[in-house]
Design brief:
Layout lengths: L1 H34 L9 H13 L3 E2 L2 E5 L5 E11 L5 E12 L5 E12 L4 E12 L4 E10 L4 E4 L3 E5 L2 E5 L1 E6 L7 E6 L3 E4 L10
Antiparallel strand pairs: 1-3, 2-3, 3-4, 4-5, 5-6, 6-7, 7-8, 7-9, 8-11, 9-10, 10-13, 11-12
C-alpha cells in the first residue's frame, strides 16, 4: 500500500511539473522582453552615413596589389598601403609603394617609394619621394623619382641616382634597367650621364692561423 501511494504521488508531481515548467518559462521570457532596453535602429545611421559619404567623396582601396608578367617574361608585383583612382578611372595615386621585379635571368630588383602614380592608358607607373632600389647583384641606389613600364621590363630614373655597388660608391645622372637588345632573357643595369665611381676594394679574407 505504501508503495502504491508513493507511485501515485510521484505521478501527480510529474504531471503538475509538465504544466508548471512551460508556464514558468513563458513568464521569464516575457519579463525579459518587458525590462530590456529598446534599441533604436536610427542610432547607427549617422555613423554609417558619414563613412559612406567619405567613401563616395574620396574612393580608395586599402592594401591594393598588382601582379603581372611583362611581354619579355619578367614578373612584376606592386603593392601599396592605399590607392585612389583618378577622375578618368584609368589611373590613380598610391601611398607607400613596393615593387618587386624578377627577370628570367634570375635577377631580382626591389623598389620602395613614398608615393606614386599609375597610368593604365600608357601602361606606366611613376614612383616618387625617396625611391630606394635594391638589386640581387649588389646595388643599393636612391633617387627622387623612377618610371617603370608595366608591359615590358624598363625601369628608368627620372633624375640622378646615388648609392653603393659591388665596386664601391657610385653616382650618375641616370640609371636604367632594361632587356639586352637582341639577347632574349638577358637584362642590363646601365648608369650614364656624369657617372662617378669611388672604388672600394673588397676587404681581404681574415688570415686564419
Amino acid at each position: 500500500m505504501a508503495l502504491s501511494r508513493h507511485d501515485n504521488l510521484h505521478s501527480r508531481l510529474v504531471g503538475w511539473l509538465k504544466v508548471l515548467l512551460p508556464l514558468l518559462a513563458l513568464v521569464i521570457l516575457s519579463t525579459l522582453f518587458m525590462v530590456s532596453r529598446k534599441i533604436d535602429p536610427q542610432d547607427a545611421i549617422p555613423y554609417a552615413e558619414v563613412d559612406v559619404a567619405d567613401r563616395i567623396r574620396e574612393p580608395r582601396m586599402t592594401e591594393p596589389a598588382y601582379a603581372g608578367v611583362t611581354e619579355d617574361g619578367a614578373s612584376l608585383t606592386v603593392t601599396a598601403d592605399a590607392a585612389r583612382p583618378d577622375a578618368s578611372g584609368k589611373g590613380g595615386t598610391a601611398q607607400t609603394l613596393r615593387a618587386e621585379l624578377d627577370t628570367p635571368d634570375g635577377a631580382h630588383t626591389s623598389i620602395v617609394a613614398q608615393n606614386g602614380t599609375f597610368d593604365d592608358t600608357a601602361r606606366q607607373m611613376r614612383l616618387n619621394g625617396g625611391v630606394q632600389i635594391t638589386t640581387s647583384t649588389g646595388y643599393l641606389m636612391t633617387t627622387e623619382a623612377l618610371v617603370s613600364e608595366l608591359d615590358r621590363t624598363e625601369v628608368t630614373s627620372a633624375g640622378p641616382v646615388a648609392g653603393t655597388g659591388p665596386l664601391g660608391v657610385l653616382s650618375a645622372g641616370q640609371m636604367r634597367i632594361t632587356a639586352t637588345e637582341g639577347v632574349s632573357g638577358s637584362y642590363v643595369l646601365v648608369f650614364k650621364n656624369r657617372v662617378k665611381l669611388i672604388y672600394r676594394p673588397p676587404e681581404p679574407p681574415p688570415n686564419d692561423k
